[in-house]
Amino acid sequence: MAKAKTTAFFCKECGYESAKWTGQCPACRAWNTMVEEPVAKKESSRRIVPGAARQAAKPVKLSEVSIKEQDRISTGYRELDRVLGSGIVAGSLVLVGGDPGIGKSTILLQVCRNLAAAGHKILYISGEESLKQIKLRANRIGEISGELLFLCETNLDDIEGAIRETKPEVVIIDSIQTMYRDDVSSAPGSVSQVRESTNILLQIAKGMGISVFIVGHVTKEGVVAGPRVLEHMVDTVLYFEGERNASYRILRGVKNRFGSTNEIGVFEMQEQGLVEVENPSEYLLSGRPQEASGAVVACSIEGTRPILLEVQALVAQTNFGMARRTAAGTDYNRVNLLMAVLEKRCHYEMSRYDAYVNIAGGVRMNEPALDLAIVLALVSSLKDRPVNPKCIIFGEVGLSGEVRAVSMAEQRVREAAKLGFEACILPQVCLEKIKKAEGIRLYGVKNVREAITTI
Questions:
Q1: 151-183 pLDDT, tens digit each
Q2: What is the CB neighbour count within 10 angstroms for residue 142?
Q3: What is the CATH number of domain 283-454?
């Protein structure tokens, strides 16, 4: 009789299972990601709920499915509701990732406080902190009232029993890497445990109509630890961005089955917890230097929201044979490309100068609409001539030096006018499409040379 295998090799990126080790995963083509772990015991595909009779699922028409506004629950934070797609969807599974100490547990505890105060029943399950630690953090963010229950447990079987007994509307799991099942012999946080635990929570969310939030640790590369299949199983993936030492936090939607994936929410870490920033443009532009060369205000679009930010450039003559390039907050290769355009099309000897480009505030933006602002910031620093602080600039720059159109130009102009800007340099193509602009002068440019002359 053949001996049953007790171990197998799993890919840490995609969860692919193989009987033998391979250097490259056959599924996702990632190198050196196969790890050996015990095989989970086979179970029946049907999970039997004690005391409940299972009913067979019946096909229905879309016309028979009713969608109501009450199906979404407001978190009490407009920034978070925007990223989720106007609220929490009943029966959804949401993954929240981010660096340690960035505020994942804090924002979820604040959401639980708001939901409990609104009359919803919440269950907060922690596998990393004790009840005393949670209470200390809860005292810092404010008084908690309503039906908010806490449980410190890591066994998924006990957690499942507690959920079925209490029947909450929202469940918080902090974190998925600490959860385990008895029938999976590998350690908590392994590929097998994370995949099996998420599968159980997915069945609970869809079967009982409970919204489940999962906190996930991130690796050194900035992705959620565990197999990539974890992100495919959940409905929504949210990432917290920002430096731990900085006060701001950006919540970005990477995947969302119930809304846009381009929305962001801006929060500020204060003594009482995370506070939403309703006007991030004003927040990012605070403390701007006056009459300083190399500082230009640009406008980026995140989802449906225009955000004004400051692009800074510093150009200094190099002391070595090879010029140095540094980019913070934007794409390094894009900066090199734009400097090559300046050298070829505008005849600036950029190869003789070191160049440092920074997006003030620590945010990261890769939208092509920042190209023209980066180019003009570099020229301003090279010539040591400041740009009008009341002027906003946006536009995409091509390899031939042309300034190409960008999306949502009218919304960008309106946001600039609302914050008191008096002039705007934009692509000529976008200028023809803008119907009306009050309180701000518009200058359309066709290429980089024309933009430099205008500024």
A1: 999 999 999 999 999 999 999 999 888 998 888
A2: 13
A3: 3.30.230.10
Burial 263-300, CB ≥16 within 10 A → b, else e: bbbbbbbeeebbbbbeebbebbbeeeeeeebbbbbbbb
- 286 vs 246: which has the higher pLDDT: 286
Residue type, 154: T
Other Cβ atoms less than 10 A from the Cβ of 19: the count is 9
Residue 233 has what pLDDT? 87
Does CATH number 3.40.50.300 belong to domain 71-278? yes
Contact between 153 and 131 (Cβ < 8 Å)? no
User: Could you tell me the two tokens for 38?
Assistant: 């015990």
Question: Within a 10 A sphere around the Cβ of 421, how many other Cβ atoms?
Answer: 22
Residue type, 23: G
Q: Residue 362 half-sphere exposure, CB side, CA atoms within 13 Å?
A: 13
Q: How far is CA 208 from CA 147, 149, 155, 330, 440, in A?
A: 19, 18, 20, 43, 54
Enumerate the domain spans of the chain.
7-38, 71-278, 283-454
* Ramachandran category for residue 320: left, alpha or beta (phi over 0 → left; psi -120 to 50 → alpha): beta
Taking only the tens place, the pLDDT of each residue in 323-350 is 899 999 899 999 999 999 999 999 999 9
Alpha helix locations (H) across 227-370? Answer: 229-233, 280-284, 332-345
pTM equals: 0.74
Tokens of 48: 């039997």
Computed over every residue of the chain, the mean pLDDT equals 86
pLDDT value for 402: 96
The reported pLDDT for the residue numbered 220 is 56
Interatomic CA distance for residues 351 and 248, integer angstroms: 36
Residues for the chain: how many in total? 455
